[in-house]
Specification:
Structural class: alpha/beta
Number of helices: 13
Helix content: 25-40%
Length: about 500
């Protein structure tokens, strides 16, 4: 796959389509050929506005065909697209354009005052509106500028590589056998670079792509009949819950009837969820990657192992530190470095090109990778012993009646606590039996692995937006704060009871 050849691949394809469905259900469809014609028109508009190779075009807008068109048009003009998340606050447009070094800003956000370099997603920029002082460089291998919050919640800007983009897409096509008969649905923001990789992939192979809002995703999946999906665990958990409520048919039919495979990543997924999909004949495959390096490991239709994130894509590019942390050093990483780390020091990129993932993992004898947890999530006990919460959680995965168990540090004792969601939170007998089963499991573990304090939750925190990052991952610090608050409330209740 080559980005400079992308336009030639889809310009004459009159059979494959790009579909846009908005929040009201309104549907818009164009063929790849028509998409190319419109991209050329948008590129001409950029040129007329004063955009030249090396300029930076910003976009802060909701998903849609117009978003894709501005992206493709920027490529045609040699500009670099800078993608902002939907929640990005623009404030003063002039200051925003200057601060981010933009030649033009495409946005659907409501702003208090106008600026010549602002244009609506479906609008036409004015002639020669690019600020005279707009920076212009030599992009070289730089394809795009994107933002990612990761698990830390700290916003980081990443320089996305052309070669890295081409490499990831080429390997995906090779390993998953996607082609012109496929149809893909995207519902996460296009400002998330993974979604743009999917768009480029579909345009390259001549597959259909559907852009849908997350509020309508389950209806869209049934109606549009995708053949593959890429989504975070919360999507698959929710889909399974909705399927069970329907009370009939198969899970495959509930998901449109055309699914060949589905991929999950971005956050850990429950083993029970994976098993439920496979039991229904739906191939849900776990994968692992990061925007910094690109994909690192994945399960495929041919080679898969539940509970692992699959085999290393490039075994020779991955090494492990003595404590199990993964390092990646490949010729074409997806990103070549940060352009903005929000003031946070970061040691992700080493001078020799090695990327430090911050993830701990192990390889089994067959080469499948199992992740143990994030370095930044490591819990230091009062004994000085370090433990990975995900590894401890796996030791309690078999406790009957538990929907979710999250391990956190206790705020006072420096030991391990857990937030537990029972299958029926109102069933006092079940809650009591869960306590007993956790105590029984504790007895078989070493002292540093034991959970010493429990807090019960009515709903899983992994499915609660209040405890998730912008990338739909569980925020461990927020989970720990939830535990501390609940534990404090329980202590106060007990104190009040004793004072009566």
């Amino acid at each position: 796959m080559r980005l400079h050849e992308l336009a030639d691949r889809y310009r004459d394809n009159a059979s494959a389509v790009v579909v846009e469905i908005d929040s009201t259900g309104r549907r818009r469809e164009v063929t790849h050929r028509r998409l190319h014609d419109l991209a050329v028109l948008y590129a001409d508009r950029l040129t007329a506005a004063g955009v030249r190779p090396g300029h930076v075009v910003g976009i802060r807008a909701g998903n849609g065909i117009d978003w894709v068109l501005w992206d493709l048009a920027a490529m045609m003009t040699g500009a670099v697209l800078k993608a902002f998340a939907d929640e990005t606050v623009i404030g003063d447009p002039g200051e925003f354009v200057t601060r981010h070094g933009l030649a033009l800003l495409v946005t659907d956000a409501e702003v208090t005052s106008g600026h010549p370099a602002l244009v609506r997603p479906d609008g036409v920029p004015g002639v020669d509106v690019v600020p005279a002082d707009a920076p212009r460089g030599e992009p070289g291998d730089l394809h795009s500028l994107v933002f990612s919050s990761g698990t830390s919640g700290l916003l980081k800007g990443l320089n996305v590589s052309r070669k890295g983009t081409e490499y990831v897409i080429s390997r995906f096509i090779e390993c998953f056998g996607v082609g012109a008969d496929d149809r893909h649905v995207i519902f996460l923001p296009l400002s998330n670079y993974q979604q743009r990789l999917s768009v480029y992939c579909c345009l390259w192979i001549g597959a259909d792509v559907v852009l849908a809002p997350y509020q309508r995703i389950f209806g869209v999946v049934r109606d549009e009949r995708p053949t593959f999906l890429i989504a975070p665990p919360v999507f698959y958990d929710t889909a399974l819950q909705l399927f069970h409520k329907t009370g009939g048919g198969s899970l495959g039919d509930f998901l449109g009837g055309g699914i060949r495979f589905m991929i999950t990543g971005m956050a850990p997924i429950r083993r029970e969820t994976l098993e439920a999909y496979w039991a229904q004949g739906v191939r849900l495959l776990e994968a692992y990657g990061m925007t910094e390096s690109g994909m690192i490991a994945w399960n495929t239709q041919e080679e898969h192992r539940l509970g692992s994130v699959g085999k290393l894509i490039d075994p020779e590019a991955v090494t492990f530190l003595p404590d199990g942390e993964l390092l990646v050093h490949r010729p074409a990483p997806l990103s070549t470095g940060y352009f903005d780390t929000a003031g946070a020091a970061d040691e992700t990129y080493r001078p020799d090109g090695t990327i430090v993932t911050g993830d701990y993992g192990t390889l089994d004898d067959d080469g499948f990778l199992t992740l143990l947890g994030r370095k930044k999530d490591v819990i230091v006990l009062d004994s000085g012993r370090k433990v990975h919460p995900a590894e401890i959680e796996s030791l309690f995965a078999g406790v009957e009646g538990v929907v979710e168990l999250l391990v956190v540090p206790t705020p006072r004792t420096g030991r391990l606590g857990a937030i537990v969601t029972p299958a029926d939170p109102k069933d006092d007998a079940l809650v009591l039996s869960i306590r007993e089963r956790i105590d029984k499991t504790n007895q078989s573990l070493e002292s540093h692995q034991r959970i010493t304090s429990l807090v019960f939750s009515d709903r899983p925190l992994r499915n609660d937006p209040r405890y998730m990052t912008a990338n739909l991952k569980l925020s461990r610090p927020l989970a720990a704060a939830y535990f501390a608050e609940a534990a404090q409330a329980r202590r106060q209740e007990r104190a009040a009871e004793h004072g009566r």
